[in-house]
Amino acid sequence: MSYGPFGRIAIVGTGLIGGSWGLALKSCGCAGRIIGCDRPEVLARALERGAIDEGEPHLASAVRSADLAILAAPVGVIMEHLPHIKAAASPQALVTDTGSTKRAVLERARQVFAGQPLFLGGHPLAGKEISGVEHASSTLFRESRYVLTPTEPEHLEDARVKAFKLLVEQVGAQPFVTDAKSHDHALAFLSHLPQLLATGLASLVANEDHRSAIPLELAAAGFRDMTRLAESSYGVWRDVCLTNADNLKGALDSLIRKLEDMMQQLDNDGLEHEFDEALHLRERWKQVR
């Protein structure tokens, strides 16, 4: 199967997301050549997994002849890469990223690319709390949303963007088009805040355990589910927090106020309303999944 104009695809960053992109493309019959760009030891593991056809540790060489470049790296690294990609990539190429925040990336792409090559912001709403190509999966994107944030609305009519939307569908995801500002505000509440909440809860329990031993044998499914994201590393989330700090501060402030309100309601029936609101929200979410 051929994917329109993408005969040669460069995946910059062959960890969990980049490796899953490679495996997904191969699983659905991609006829293109997939070149991975990463550290030599990571490329060796990606080749062993079958996620890429060849490895190239040098960014310029990896993207020079690519029709599509997928930047699957932390947001800060993506922004550092953009000038080098501009210098090496074909003006006819499509460049997209998988970063968890979009405003900073798109602003940098506008400054650097000026439309050549064409940049399309992207964010697969799929992942795991653990990283590395060892955990990559050909099915990671299936039945998930894949956010697309064009630098300009008219880019949605470009043949390369249409071809990439088709590619997203063929790896099992559902494209969801929005603007960068809306994306970053929503994800602050729906993704970034849950991560900080899980991390904060686990850290709080660790601190309390230091003061007065808490037998972790008493932790069951609730603690397990609430702290699953605490296994994520700061290295993965550092750039997310830095590039979405304004929205995250607002979300944290709202959460603090909510917790203070709930604390005042512990000795009356006021919490029933909170439980009802939470249940209704969960039901709505299940319907739009």
Short description:
With 289 residues, this protein is α/β, with parallel strands linked by helices. The protein has 11 helices and 8 strands.
Name the CATH class of the largest domain: Alpha Beta
Largest sheet geometry: 8 strands, mixed
- β-strand amount: 5-15%
Global outline:
globular
Number of strands: 8
Residue stretches low in confidence (pLDDT < 50, at least 5 long) are none
List keywords for this structure.
alpha/beta; 8 strands; eight-stranded mixed beta sheet; 6-phosphogluconate dehydrogenase C-terminal fold; 289 residues; globular; 52% helix; 2 domains; Rossmann fold
Could you describe the 3D structure shown?
With 289 residues, this protein is an alpha/beta fold. It folds into 2 domains: 8-178, Rossmann fold; 183-288, 6-phosphogluconate dehydrogenase C-terminal like domain (6-phosphogluconate dehydrogenase C-terminal fold, Orthogonal Bundle). It has 11 helices and 8 strands. An 8-stranded mixed β-sheet has the order 3-2-1-4-5-6-7-8, sandwiched between helices. Helix 4 (75-88) links the parallel strand 4 and strand 5. Helix 4 runs parallel beside helix 5 and helix 7 packs across helix 10. The longest helix has 32 residues, at 180-211. It is globular and about 65 Å long. The mean pLDDT is 94.
What does the secondary structure layout of this molecule look like, with pairings?
Elements: E1 8-12, H1 16-27, E2 33-37, H2 40-49, E3 54-55, H3 59-63, E4 68-71, H4 75-88, E5 94-97, H5 103-113, E6 118-124, E7 145-150, H6 159-170, E8 174-177, H7 180-211, H8 221-226, H9 234-243, H10 245-264, H11 271-288
Parallel strand pairs: 1-2, 1-4, 2-3, 4-5, 5-6, 7-8
Antiparallel strand pairs: 6-7
